[in-house]
Automatic annotation (TrEMBL):
InterPro entries: P-loop_NTPase (IPR027417), Sialate-O-sulfotransferase (IPR051589), Sulfotransferase_dom (IPR000863), WSC_carb-bd (IPR002889). It comes from Anseranas semipalmata (Magpie goose). The lineage of its organism: Eukaryota, Metazoa, Chordata, Craniata, Vertebrata. This is WSCD1 protein. Pfam families: Sulfotransfer_1, WSC. One of its GO terms (molecular function) is sulfotransferase activity. SMART domains: WSC.
Amino acid sequence: MAKAFFRLQKFLRRTQFLLFFLTAAYLMAGSLLLLQRTHLVVQQGSRGTSAGQALPAPEAMLGAGLADPRTAQSPSPRLLAGTAVLQEPAPDLRHGPRWLASRNSELRQLRRRWFHRFISDQEPMQTAGLKTMKHTAEHKGTYMGCFSDDSRERTLKGAVFYDLRKMTVSHCQEACAERAYTYAGLAYGAECYCGNKLPATASRPEECNSECKGEKGSVCGGVNRLSVYRVEELWAAAPRRRNVIYRGCFRAPENLTDTFPASLIQPNLTVEMCSEFCSKKEFPLAVIRGRECYCGYPTGRFSLHGGADGRLCSGMLNASSTGGKYCLVYQTPVQDTRCTDRKFLTTKSKVFVALSSFPGAGNTWARHLIEHATGYYTGSYYFDGALYNKGFKGEKDHWRSRRTICVKTHESGKTEIEMFDSAILLIRNPFKSLMAEFNRKFAGHLGYATDRNWKSKEWPDFVNSYASWWASHVLDWLKYGKRLLVIHYEDLKQSLIPKLKEMVEFLNMTVTEDRLLCVENNRDGNFKRSGAKQKDFEPFTQEMKDLINRYILTVDEALRGRNFTGLPREYVPR
């Protein structure tokens, strides 16, 4: 018994010693880790960025001398000293492909950090806006009930709006009333549909159970269910947006009755009469030939390509007869909804495709065209809440999910590029791209930077930093891309359907001609800046122009060296 007790006592002493030893080791390890972190903070502080400080804008980071990750292990004395100048190569090596490729690694890190800082800055602002929103908004329209909603045979199809963050009943009602629609319907808590016909199939009231994204306590439809309001009584108070756009003079098809689904013969016919008639019928085109008014869509039989001389349609509105070889065409406020339905891929894509471009090169516009042409969402390497809220649902999907038809990216560099099996490389005039990205940086997707921004020191710093990125982005994709389709923004703008066909075929998709014509009819999308804001000064100095022109020549030569079409002649220096 004594022997057993002695063994137990010996074991407990050893355990006590072991516990003491482990505790001491743990405390020492923690102290070493704390000292190491403190050393890193001090070292980062000497480079110009403290551990708790928000990341500065790209140009500020360039000024601080951002190191290439490959050289981070042995930083140069200049970087540790916090120098305000980037290491510059010899003058004869600048603007060449090698220098651009090495500089691009710095700029890629710059862009990534700046982009995520921009997004994180936007989120608190949007959240604050939601908190201050009044939850007791008055619904002035007459509630008609809950109805079934079939995306293939949608009744309310005159106009479609998305706002996945701020949709309210009043917002939808006002949007439909402004366009003089009779009904406004809400679905999924964030989608708004307008039209002049009440949906045929009623549903139980409890099936409309989705709370409005921007208005707690209010119902905005449900899954395949519409909360429908009659808004005709709001027309008088709503600002009218019945803009009718003149599309031109065209040769009339041989049989207008077969070409257009609706028609009207009216003495003293006016543009307003015909447009109002076609809007009520929910058609995007109003076609006038003398006393005849026709309504319909752009189709293969009447594509709105190759317009005639406007003089051939002179006197058409005052004609009292019917018939004739030519007709006037107007765009009504009604949205062409033949191509607005979109979804995620039902099975994972076998080919991982990038939609790559320099920022400001029209990537969002290209995504709009691709989504409406194919009927599938596009994804994004980033998450932009503003795009997601306006209907780009692929923004929230993980970029490697392969549920989207292609993935937006501004990244470059061997590792990032080789992740993709193929890519559509979108290139735009660098002068236009730089201005577009500068506008987005200071005023969002639809705004314009102020004159004060353009005349500040930030603009020349921005050009100096981003102009080289424009060139190195293209060079990297030409070098490391496995299978490329190069699309020039200017060519896409000028010849939309042929270029869009190329993109769709590259994505291994087939679409109908009518769907492509629908995309052309809705070509602008929701993220086009309204007009070109004219500045009373030239933002580019001669020094900036010389710098950018050298990059243009480098990229043009690289494209031709890979047997691609060179850059458009309109901006290649001659």
